[in-house]
Amino acid sequence: MNGVRVPKVLSIKGLWVKSLSTICCVTSGLAGGKEGPMMHLGAIAGGSLPSALSWPSFKSDHERRDLAAAGFGAGIAVAFGAPIGGLLLSVEEGVSFWDLSLMWRSYLCILFAYFMGNLMLSLIEGQPGDFNNPDLLTFGKISSDVTEYELFEIFLFAMVGAIGGMSGALLIRLHVYITMFRKRFVNTKTRKLTESFLVGCMIAAFNLAAVMHIKSCFTWSNETLNDHSRLEPSQ
């Protein structure tokens, strides 16, 4: 997709490896996000569909790229409960050439995946048809008390955005050097496995040291634990 060809990036083997590695990474507390893997898993599901169909029209690279782009957006829509966001991200990251027909086909795929994700989640929670919790991965609920702001704070927001942009540019430059280093020295399976092990140990040690240093705990009352809508520390 998007003019970049990576061998076996949409293979079925990659689907299982990516799923297992994402579960292990997230549950272990490593510094790895869920957005990228969900996009990749959706793209694999869409890109692998032509191999399961006997229709000749779906065997071309053009159709395979379009299906991968639709799966790309569907993964975001199901994971974060954002069908419009999945479509926009698919436009931005998924394809090099976009047309109106592809947009409608992708949006139909995204809406269907979004609906099926909600349906499956409601069945798992034992409340069939209840679509009040549409996202699988949530960042928490933001109350209205913290969303109100004054006019002068817009300049502070702009400063934060500028700092974030410069930090992102610095991170990209640093990532280029790290990639060049890894390509030169971390080029065998043993070294790659050792690298993953060392990175995991470093992050685990940092998290443990941070917890031991902060030493901040909360006491939860039984009433609060039973009422999930009011999870606030007891006084």
Distance N to C terminus: 54 Å
Mean pLDDT: 77
Share of helical residues: 55-70%
Indicate the overall shape: globular
Specify the structural class.
mainly alpha
Write down how many β-strands occur, each being a DSSP E stretch of 2 or more residues.
0
How many individual helices?
8
Order of helices and strands: HHHHHHHH
User: Compute the gyration radius: what is it?
Assistant: 22 Å
Q: State the major sheet.
A: none
How many domain units? Answer: 2
Percent range for β-strand residues: under 5%
The unreliable regions are: 230-235
GO molecular function: chloride transmembrane transporter activity
Keywords: CBS domain, Membrane, Repeat, Transmembrane, Transmembrane helix
GO cellular component, one term: lysosomal membrane
InterPro entries: Cl-channel/antiporter (IPR051280), Cl-channel_core (IPR014743), ClC (IPR001807)
Characterization of the model:
Its main location: membrane. InterPro entries: Cl-channel/antiporter, Cl-channel_core, ClC. The chain crosses the membrane at residues 67-90, 102-124, 154-176, 197-214. It holds the Pfam family Voltage_CLC. It is built from 8 helices and no strands. The model is unreliable at 230-235 (pLDDT under 50). Helix 3 (61-80) packs antiparallel against helix 4 (83-94) and helix 3 (61-80) packs across helix 5 (100-124). The protein folds into 2 domains: 12-125, no CATH class; 151-216, no CATH class. 66% of the residues lie in helices and 0% in strands. The chain is mostly helical and 235 residues long.
